[in-house]
Amino acid sequence: MNSAQRTQTATTAEPQLPLRYAPTIAVDDAAEAGPQRILVLGATSGIAEATCRLWAERGDHLFLVARNADKLNVVAADMRVRGAGYVDTAVVDLDDTTKHAELLAHAVNSLAGLDVAFVALGVLGDARESELNFAEANRILQTNFVSAVSLLTWLGNFCAQRHHGTLAVLSSVAGDRGRKSNYVYGSSKAGLSTFVDGLRNRIDREGVRVLTIKPGPVKTAMTEGMRSSDKFADVETVATSLVKAIGKRAGVVYVPGKWWIIMRVVTLIPEFIFKKLDL
Question: Does residue 208 form part of some domain?
Answer without folding.
Answer: yes
